[in-house]
Amino acid sequence: MGVSISPPFTLLCLGFISTVWTLNPDDPNVCSHWESYAVTVQESYAHPFDQVYYTRCTDILNWFKCTKHRISYKTAYRRGVRTMYRRRSQCCPGFYETADLCVPLCTEECVHGRCISPDTCQCEPGWGGLDCSSGEYRTQHTVNRKPRKLTKLKTFHMSDL
């Protein structure tokens, strides 16, 4: 009997994992840069309007009432776009992200060793080369070689010549 997981639950889990796994900006292999992004905001502004008012005057035809105009302002709201900035962390060149770490990337596999920095392998004892594939010990059994007999070197002085 199989277990089925609902898509919303899967998205919830993925969202949780992505928020848990964040790069540490203090890690020496993490580089950061500033990026801009747009945010829609509601902003207030002073909206002008024509205000009509009446004053007393000498106009007998208008019952001594004169009409006047003045520009007044009221607070209104509008949508605007603001540019915001945030620091983005990512792995430095030569590293790739796995979980919440930046690990070094070696273009060639380290055959008998491990990748310790970009394109740099640390070889196991007895192995060498750029990818740790060459060495003396290719099998468990090694060939014993006879030790060579060392001869003593005679030293010469200029007076001996």
Automatic annotation (TrEMBL):
Gene3D superfamilies: Laminin. Keywords: Cell membrane, Disulfide bond, EGF-like domain, Glycoprotein, Membrane, Repeat, Signal, Transmembrane, Transmembrane helix. Residues 1-22 form the signal peptide. The keyword Transferase does not apply. It comes from the Eukaryota. The keyword Membrane applies. Transmembrane segments: none annotated. It is found in: Cell membrane; Membrane. It comes from Xenotaenia resolanae. This is Multiple epidermal growth factor-like domains protein 11. PROSITE patterns: EGF_1 (PS00022), EGF_2 (PS01186), EMI (PS51041). Its main location: membrane. The lineage of its organism: Eukaryota, Metazoa, Chordata, Craniata, Vertebrata. It is a single-pass membrane protein. InterPro entries: EGF, EGF_PEAR1L-like, EMI_domain, MEGF_diff_regulators. Residues 27-104 form the EMI domain.
